[in-house]
Amino acid sequence: xxxxxxxxxxRATLAEKEVTTLKEQLNSNTTSNNCExxxxxxxxxxxxxxxxxxxxxxxxxxxxxxxxxxxxxxxEEHV
Length: 79
Known about the structure:
It is built from 2 helices and no strands. By secondary structure, it is mostly helical. The protein has one domain. The relative contact order is 0.17.
């Protein structure tokens, strides 16, 4: 049980790092696109925002799963 919990925590941490990287890319992309076509910039920004939202959701789900596994694990210790 503890190994599974560790895997979920590692995945949540990785997802959180990916979100941070995507946010940095979004900021960098927004700055560099100021000189480019505005329509393209808006599409790129929307794509990044969509991807960031998906990663945030994935991270939250993995964090919840980790908490639930920890609760189950702690409950088994007291039985």
